[in-house]
Amino acid sequence: MTIDPSVINQICTFVMSADQTNDKSIEIAAEHYAQACEKVNERLDLCKLFLKSGHRTQALRFAEQQPSLQWSVEQLKLRGMVDLWKDAIASFGWERCQPLKSEILNLLEDAYIAEKEVGELIQEYREKSLARAPLSDRLLLVRQLANKDLTNPTWLADIEEFEQALMRELAARGRRALSNSDLDELIEVVQQNDSQDWTVELPQDFQNFLSKAVPIVYRKYTIPRLVTKFKQARRRNHLDGMLEIRTKIYQHFELAKSYSSNFRVKETVASEFKRLSDELSSAENRRKMKAFQYDLQLLQNMLGGQHHREQIEEAFAQAQSHEIPIPPLVVAQMENCFANEKSDKQLTAIAISSLIFLVVVLLVLAFLLYSKLS
């Protein structure tokens, strides 16, 4: 249904007018407006249904049919005077209009953004396909499309197809590298495998290749390189960096052992890693103790001052978080502090009660004296 701008202007003029008179023309305009609201809501509901069922493109096309939903809703908002118009409708008893479901426009706006992003990714995917870009690059784009275009199940099928093709390619390259003792190529193949988040089951021949290649690459390249980074972080006294790298080294050890139970690295690498790990553990303990002492001192300062019980308990919990036992003397001080606080509260309560009693007695005496004088 086409919305007549002249009707919108007529309604807005009526709402702003000081002299609102019920006549046939404005009643007809009210009917036209109510019908338009009903039709626009039907279109909005249909767009929402398209979006929920995964047909984003159809929803956007339907929303853009002339007159567009964006334009229609904007017209029916009556330049911000919808509430005044509803008051007039109720006053004169004209046909009531449905509230506009304009919140669906927000869903459409999100759909426009997603559609634009998907269109750009599709264009990039086509360009890479024409240029015969590496399978790994195209697989990355297809995964991005699957995440952005959740309404299109074909991307999941494409991911499976690309992953299987990439596995075959990596297995073939890896076998050649093993045959030619080409460590650089072998490293690249294993790194590509490590960077993938496979969603399909690895074929047996690919698993057989990895069981040979991964221990070799990790022993000769990956773990020694990580130990070198570990050493560099130690020189910079970058404790958090050392912790992160140590975790990665342990993870690579575990993965390599899953392929080869007797996995080992060179003795020089192993001894260097152990030495650095021991130094890291000592530094970790020192930092932990320093933080504990700082929080313990804060707790003791609170026990000697005027602080609420909740603040003290919070400071105690923070000191406990370091998993180092709190000295018994500090615990005793805290318990004594809480006991004193309880005693102070009791004394305060007694004092207040006594004061109230004294005031009551004085009031009674004053009343008796007043009665006697009267």
Task: Describe the secondary structure blueprint for this structure.
Layout: H1 5-16, H2 24-52, H3 56-64, H4 69-76, H5 82-92, H6 104-130, H7 135-148, H8 154-180, H9 183-195, H10 204-235, H11 239-259, H12 267-303, H13 309-320, H14 328-373
Helix pairs in contact: 1-2, 2-3, 2-4, 2-6, 3-6, 6-7, 7-8, 8-9, 8-10, 9-10, 10-11, 10-12, 11-12, 12-13
Summarize the structure in words:
- The protein is an all-alpha fold and 374 residues long.
- It has helices at residues 5-16, 24-52, 56-64, 69-76, 82-92, 104-130, 135-148, 154-180, 183-195, 204-235, 239-259, 267-303, 309-320, 328-373.
- The longest helix is centred in the last third of the chain and has 46 residues, at 328-373.
- The termini are far apart.
Number of helices: 14
Low confidence ranges: none
SSE run? HHHHHHHHHHHHHH
Shape: flat
Helical content band: over 70%
Describe the main β-sheet briefly. Answer: none
β-strand number: 0
Supply Rg.
Answer: 39 Å
Give the CA-CA distance, first to last residue.
91 Å
- Which whole number gives the mean pLDDT? 85
- Strand-pairing-aware structural class: mainly alpha
Strand content: under 5%
